Structure to design on (324 residues):
């Protein structure tokens, strides 16, 4: 991989940065999943937006010209000196699609976190990644007290393609969250290899 | 549908979420775009040296970035540590890159991400967590 620093010289080689998105509706557990595997406490990056960026057909959120702050929580996992992986919990609302564009550019893939109590909340994310061709999987976060469904039932309800992995997870658990990410990377790798 | 918490009806000074009293655009002299560089959220940045003691044309936020980037850091991490909007940090980083005070590494473009070895390294790394 070509990864020479922009000003060449004797400085050491920088690692390659990789990003994975964790999308889903509000409260689906995005930050929880990021925090379960991140080597640091999740950090928050914010973008200040004016009406310019916000969907004009949305009358509920923005009535007058004002600024909106869109926040993303993110975490980091360093793999030796060669790779550093960033996990971004992306804002779930469809009206922030323009921020998804920025974050999705160059992403290895995306995890769509689904909450079976509000399954429709993850539709915009699925539509978006399908349209954009970003490799994605669906992870159903099994909240305590939430009615449990089988992965196949959720898959049918979401009407996604047969090749897209759907698995159940507990975003609070490190092992479970690791499994989600491994499933995504394996899926993305398969898609790349098939090209 | 769920929306983020509504902003207050009238802009107020100094409530708990008032943020910095210096508006972000003041730090960038009103500029919206960096003079150099793209600065993706995962672009990696490292200072080329310690913060200069005489810093003509640099603001305190520029110096904060240089101090932070004594160790390698992504644009997203810089924005989080300085609690500044991404757009503002991009402009400041462009100034620093232009003056040779930082080196950057933009991430791989999507089209080049076909390195299967990278996928395997990430899978192995995750398993070992």
């Amino acid at each position: 991989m070509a990864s020479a620093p922009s000003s060449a010289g004797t400085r050491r080689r920088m690692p390659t940065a990789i990003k994975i998105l964790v999308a889903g509706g509000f409260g689906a557990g995005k930050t929880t999943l990021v925090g379960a595997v991140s080597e640091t406490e999740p950090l928050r990056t914010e973008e200040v937006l004016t009406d310019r960026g916000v969907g004009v057909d949305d009358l509920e959120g923005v009535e007058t010209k004002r600024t909106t702050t869109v926040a993303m929580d993110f975490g980091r996992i360093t793999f030796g000196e060669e790779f550093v992986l960033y996990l971004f919990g992306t804002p779930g609302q469809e009206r922030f699609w323009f921020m998804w564009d920025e974050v999705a550019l160059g992403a290895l893939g995306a995890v769509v976190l689904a909450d079976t109590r509000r399954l429709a909340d993850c539709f915009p994310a699925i539509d978006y990644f399908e349209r954009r061709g970003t490799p994605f999987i669906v992870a159903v976060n099994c909240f305590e007290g939430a009615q449990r469904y089988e992965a196949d039932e959720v898959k049918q309800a979401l009407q996604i393609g047969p090749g897209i992995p759907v698995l159940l997870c507990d975003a609070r658990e490190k092992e479970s969250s690791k499994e989600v990410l491994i499933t995504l990377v394996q899926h993305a790798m398969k898609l790349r290899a098939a090209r | 549908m769920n929306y983020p918490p509504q902003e207050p009806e009238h802009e107020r000074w100094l409530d708990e979420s008032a943020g910095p009293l210096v508006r972000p655009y003041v730090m960038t002299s009103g500029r919206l775009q960096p003079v150099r560089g793209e600065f993706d959220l995962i672009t990696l940045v490292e200072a080329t040296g310690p913060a200069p003691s005489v810093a003509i044309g640099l603001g305190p936020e520029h110096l904060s970035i240089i101090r932070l980037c004594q160790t390698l850091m992504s644009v997203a991490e810089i924005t989080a540590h300085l609690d500044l909007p991404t757009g503002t940090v991009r402009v400041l980083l462009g100034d620093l890159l232009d003056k040779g005070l930082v080196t950057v590494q933009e991430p791989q473009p999507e089209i080049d991400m076909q390195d299967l070895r990278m996928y395997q390294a990430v899978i192995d790394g995750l398993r070992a967590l």
Chain B touches chain A through 52 residues (CB under 8 Å). The helical segments of chain B are 24-27, 60-68, 75-82, 86-98, 116-127.
